[in-house]
């Protein structure tokens, strides 16, 4: 999961960087005054920054949701395993105690017969 998140973040960063570079180059080669071009670049940079923040928020929220889901599933599975182990332990413990008690009674009976 971590690897997939890193790939997504890398792809997102690459797309944003490519879009920013394309916008800047397009504006630099457009036939406008330098002041207007700089103003457009600043506006586009702010727009791209806002888009990046929004995408980061979306991605981080998805990652958090997936983490919560996996964490919850893991806790539930661990709890089920613990209960299963405990139930098996209790079952076999009771059987062993019962058989041991029967064996002790048999041994005592055999000893009493020998007396």
Written account of the structure:
With 115 residues, the protein is mainly α. The chain is built from two helices and no strands. Helix 1 runs antiparallel to helix 2. It is rod-shaped, with a radius of gyration of 35 Å.
The main pleated sheet reads as: none
Q: Give the total of beta strands.
A: 0
- Give the overall shape: rod-shaped
Cα Rg: 35 Å
Q: Which range does the strand content fall in?
A: under 5%
Helix/strand order: HH
Question: Helix proportion of residues, in percent?
Answer: over 70%
| SSE-based structural type | mainly alpha
Number of helices: 2
Mean of pLDDT: 83
Give the CA-CA distance, first to last residue.
73 Å
- Residue ranges: pLDDT <50 for 5 or more in a row? none
């Amino acid at each position: 999961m971590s690897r997939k998140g890193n790939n997504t973040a890398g792809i997102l960063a690459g797309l944003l960087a490519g879009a920013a570079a394309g916008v800047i180059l397009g504006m630099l080669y457009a036939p406008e005054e330098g002041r207007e071009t700089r103003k457009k670049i600043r506006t586009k940079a702010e727009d791209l920054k806002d888009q990046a923040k929004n995408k980061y928020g979306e991605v981080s929220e998805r990652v958090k949701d997936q983490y919560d889901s996996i964490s919850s599933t893991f806790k539930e599975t661990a709890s089920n395993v613990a209960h299963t182990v405990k139930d098996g332990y209790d079952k076999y413990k009771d059987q062993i105690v019962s058989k041991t008690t029967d064996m002790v009674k048999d041994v005592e009976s055999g000893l009493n017969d020998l007396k």
